[in-house]
Design a protein that fits this description.
Helices cover about 30% and strands about 25% of the residues. It has an eight-stranded mixed β-sheet with strand order 6-7-8-3-9-10-12-11, with helices on both faces. A four-stranded antiparallel β-sheet has the order 2-1-4-5, covered by helices on one side. It starts with 8 loop residues before the first strand and ends with a strand. The chain is built from twelve helices and 14 strands.
Length: about 325
């Protein structure tokens, strides 16, 4: 995947709020990124950091009200998805961009067969008749590793295990040969053995189909094994972005470093005490005007309370939003 390849998806200035009785929650704050063809971008951060809301904002999947995408540009196939009419956007969802939701136990409709649920996007987006859609649905189940695929089209979701349901969800997301696949923590509800199987399946499908993938997770171990590039989010904004090897070898943001330190390690006969990130993420009743991580950061300085740092270059393909220059051990010189 050449670095100079034109992005298949380009996002800039994305802002999303939720209207609540207590005020507006600024869930996504000026997020931007580019996804190149064939690339796997990992998006990491604590629960509530804005990972899922960002990606659902791109495709109009948030309930409105209370959600409102207030600003931004999302370019896909030369069109700004935020300006499309609802019917046009439905054509992109499942057609050009596939989405795997977080919980396979609840994402499938229990009253329809899995065959019907795979065939629906094929008939809607690709205009296939029932016979051709059924044949394609069986191919997709076979592709994701479900044995006796054609016979299982008549089964209902409750007749599948959790891992098999997630494979069905992947089959639905792949039905119309999307150029981009967004996977929202698709292995969270599965045991570790099934997680490993799903990750290997995704790696295999990526090699075969060449699609670009956005993988949302809180598990840095998963990212280490599958991603090309990592985007770290905190308080609804991007705080670090870099190639996966750089994030693990040379993390530049204190939050990224803290996340890495929470990963369990076994050294010798006794594992060390697990580290935690002290404190809580901020409640975003206003867009951050200061660094949102400052209350939990060991390197906080007066400037952090006065100015929210913008992303700045920190090496080849590496950007960080922080007033602290970690390698130099001093305040960063912006500009």
């Amino acid at each position: 995947m050449p670095d100079g390849a034109a992005p298949v998806l380009a996002v800039s200035g994305l802002k999303t709020v939720f209207r609540t009785r207590g005020g507006e929650i600024h869930a996504v704050n000026d997020v931007g990124f580019r996804l190149r063809p064939g690339e796997l971008l990992g998006v990491v951060g604590e629960s509530g950091s804005g990972k899922s809301v960002t990606m659902m904002s791109l495709l109009g999947l948030l309930p409105s009200p209370p959600a409102e995408v207030r600003a931004g540009v999302v370019l896909f196939d030369g069109r700004d998805l935020l300006k499309l009419a609802p019917e046009e956007l439905r054509g992109v969802r499942g057609g050009g961009i596939g989405f795997i939701f977080q919980d396979p136990m609840t994402s499938l409709n229990p009253v329809f067969t899995v065959g019907f649920q795979i065939m629906e996007p094929l008939r809607r987006h690709m205009g296939l008749d029932r016979r051709r859609a059924a044949a394609r649905a069986a191919e997709l189940l076979d592709l994701v590793g479900i044995p006796d695929a054609r016979a299982r089209l008549a089964d209902f979701p409750h007749q599948f295990s959790g891992g098999m349901r997630q494979r069905v969800m992947i089959a639905i997301a792949l039905a119309c040969d999307p150029r981009v696949l967004i996977a929202d923590e698709p292995t969270t509800a599965l045991d570790v053995t099934i997680q490993a199987q799903i990750l290997e399946l995704v790696r295999d499908l990526r090699r075969k189909l060449g699609m670009a993938i956005i993988w949302i997770t809180h598990d840095l171990g998963v990212i280490a094994g599958i991603a090309d590039r990592v985007m770290v989010m905190y308080a609804g904004q991007v705080v670090e972005e870099a190639p996966v090897a750089a994030v693990f070898a040379n993390p530049r943001h204190p939050y990224t470093r803290a996340l890495l330190e929470t990963i369990p390690h076994v050294r010798g006969q006794r594992a060390p005490r697990l580290k935690v990130i002290e404190g809580q993420p901020p409640i975003l009743l206003a867009a951050p005007a200061a660094c949102p991580f400052r209350a939990r950061c060991a390197h906080a300085m007066p400037r952090c309370a006065a100015e929210n740092p913008a992303l700045r270059a920190a090496g080849t393909g590496h950007a960080v939003a922080c007033h602290w220059d970690a390698p130099a051990g001093r305040e960063a010189r912006h500009g």
